[in-house]
Amino acid sequence: MRKVSKERIFLSSPHMSGKEQAYIDEAFRTNWISPLGPHVTAFEQEVADLIGRKGGVALNSGTSALHLALKLVGVKPGDVVLCSSLTFIASANPICYLRAEPIFIDSEPRTWNMCPDALERALKECVLNDEKPKAIVVVNIYGQSADYDRIRAIADRYGVPIIEDAAESLGATYKNRPSGSFGDYSILSFNGNKMITTSGGGMLLGDDLEKLDKARFWSTQAREPVIHYEHKELGYNYRLSNLLAGVGRGQLEVLADRVEARRNVFRNYEKALGGIKGVAFMPEMKGTVSSRWLTVMLVDTRVQRVKITDIIQKLAQENIEARPAWKPLHLQPLFKGCRFYPHQPNQDVAETLYQHGICLPSGSNLTKEQQDRVIDQLTSILKR
Ligand SMILES: *Cc1c(COP(=O)(O)O)cnc(C)c1O
């Protein structure tokens, strides 16, 4: 019989610092529980200052933030929006909420993020087809920034705004500039498994305060500023509660520690496993610092002669949670029939990463013993 006594090791679990409690107590003491309140306003300002943006709108999820960002840049039914393919479905779902059509762009091997060459091909063809995209959703996958020098130059040449999906990369930098500062609008997520959490939440960031006010208005049911309940536009109930913003303020205080801890987890795995034949890790582009939200290991299954799913299964038997890399959106049944621009005409980088990638437990709260347990298991599964 297999022992089941081993404590579970999670992929990425919430990591409270203890600093959250004081903010929550303050919210209780003043009975500012919800909606809104001083923690929300302060949290928005603190995040915007940290990232170097003029303002932020705290929302109930990163998905809501993407939805409102797309609305702000004017996405309407029938429009096309370009989007990274190697990402979580939340990056693209809001495009469909607005009845627009996503077109997916492959990854480049250097960053695993949106390939600038494929982006350029897509833009050129769209413009020739007389369907200039309304936006480009650029994702910083697993905490690694996309190549913004090139992507920004291309986007500007075509006059298409960038929405930066920095849900996984809070705390990362690209050429010394913080993640979240590259999009015309940028979004963050404070879901339970992200760099920091409010249990659930997100933020829309930008530099046009009037536009951000418009998003704030939409996020509170588009209620006109009059005493009776007057509505001229369609709105949403997307705001973050004051209580949860308090949790976020406490978490923000320890963000730098969280990034350092996840980067350490990565270093430990790479040091212990990087020398195994057929094993490689996600690269970090020169001049960038990844948040290393999740450590992703690539296994060349021809060299190791083991299936990715079998490795994950074996880890699960030891009560260790691991997952495949994101299944690219252009391969999702939901998006069947959507256009896709590969890295090279006959090279689909995102699909290859999906076929060979494993996300290892990467939480900032993983102990050395837990990391050793993962390493020991993988060392016994993989051939030297
Ligand atoms: C988590 C995540 C989101 C969505 O955030 P929620 O707060 O869960 O709505 C969007 N994009 C990416 C890349 C994510 O990882």
From TrEMBL:
Cofactors that this protein relies on: pyridoxal 5'-phosphate
SUPFAM superfamilies: PLP-dependent transferases
InterPro entries found in the cross-reference section: DegT/StrS_aminotransferase, PyrdxlP-dep_Trfase, PyrdxlP-dep_Trfase_major, PyrdxlP-dep_Trfase_small
Modified residues (N6-(pyridoxal phosphate)lysine): 194
Record-linked Gene3D superfamilies: Aspartate Aminotransferase, domain 1, Type I PLP-dependent aspartate aminotransferase-like (Major domain)
Molecular function via GO: pyridoxal phosphate binding; transaminase activity
A Pfam family that the UniProt record links to this protein: DegT_DnrJ_EryC1
GO BP terms, alphabetized: polysaccharide biosynthetic process
Entry keywords, A to Z: Aminotransferase, Pyridoxal phosphate, Transferase
Keyword Transferase found: yes
Entry annotation: catalytic residues: 194 (proton acceptor)
Entry's family note: Belongs to the DegT/DnrJ/EryC1 family.
Protein name in the entry: Aminotransferase class I/II-fold pyridoxal phosphate-dependent enzyme
